[in-house]
Amino acid sequence: MKLLSEALSISIDSVPVSPNDRFDIAGVYGFGRGLFTREPIRGSETSYPKLHRLHAGDVVLSRLKAFEGAIAVVPEHLNGWFLSPEFPTFAINREIADPGYLQHLFRWPGFWELLRGESRGVGARRERVSAQRVLSIRVPLPDSVEAQQDIAARLDRLHEARHRSVKSTQHAEGLVASLHNSLCQVEAPRACVGKIMKLSRTPVSIEPEKKYSQIGVYSFGKGVIRRKAQPGSTLSKLKYYQVPSGALILSNIQAWEKAIALSDEADAEYVASQRFLPYLPKRDDEVDANYMRYFFLSDAGHPMILKSSPGTTARNRTLGIKAFENLLIPLPSKRDQLHIAAVLDRAYEAVRRMRQRNQEFDALYQAALSKEFEAAQAPAGK
Fold first, then answer.
1. Alpha-helix residue ranges (DSSP H) falling in the chain
2. pTM above 0.90, yes or no
3. Which CATH superfamily is domain 2-141 in?
4. Where does the Type I restriction modification DNA specificity domain lie (predicted)?
5. Which CATH architecture group holds 143-186+332-377?
6. How far is CA 207 from CA 95, 140, 240, 256, in A?
7. 66-76: per-residue pLDDT in tens?
């Protein structure tokens, strides 16, 4: 454990601001996620008389968000970019510390805790952390730069594998979104929603002492929320209904934000408030509820939901039942509906597995950080 001042020294390139000068502006993410870029500005657009210029290989800190781990090594592609004076910069003593090692150290939650200890206050109201206070922190730092480089190389392999996994997931998400919209952009006879779907509501009489599990619906097509059971006495004064399985469920206050889902067999044990509209096909040989979900989440169907949800603010954009049931939608054959839904089910399941893999990479990387850095914090003999 060594003082960070042995590895870093304050090194600020302060540039005067002229009204007509153009500045490429960067920022620092919290939780060790590195830097990001903002829109460029003119000098006339800032009240700061000076800005700090970044240099590749230096370290930059957000004084305001230091307690959240907003510190990073400046990458090559942001050399010459600018930040406000709220972001002090530090030069790395390359004879003492390896930049790659420090970058991994800055991603370690244990280091964020050390920064948090230098920040007073609570939550977002914490005081700014000065550059000098950061330098007074003791961190795990092997004597040999070569040893640091060996550690960094091992961690690099894990971090790069995770990065490639995230990139491939993002690419897959884009492909699946395009596939989704393409498959739902169908040429087919139009049908009135109210003629092919029915609102299925079986009232439930809430008993104060009995426990009930409620459902909700996530926005952006993320599925059903299943809440823990709670006594009827704690439920709101809304009306409650049984949840039919295999139903298209729309949140009447968030459908405009794609709060649209499909219930499954287990949901029959749950209740839903009057804010959720469960629809079932009137004829099983004509309509597939899963296809209907995918259609209303697509670029073809979602504008229809928006049109049926009048209002100008989020709290007032309530889905009108009559407006929804009066929608005329293209309805392919039941066979085609099942095929489209099955293809999209498989595609989204593949994306789900990729996201799970990303989480596993995250856990593996964090475990590796803890193994490398926590050992140095342990008292001698342990």
1. 99-106, 109-117, 131-135, 145-184, 193-196, 289-297, 302-307, 321-325, 334-377
2. no
3. DNA methylase specificity domains (3.90.220.20)
4. 224-360
5. Orthogonal Bundle (1.10)
6. 72, 59, 11, 33
7. 888 999 999 99
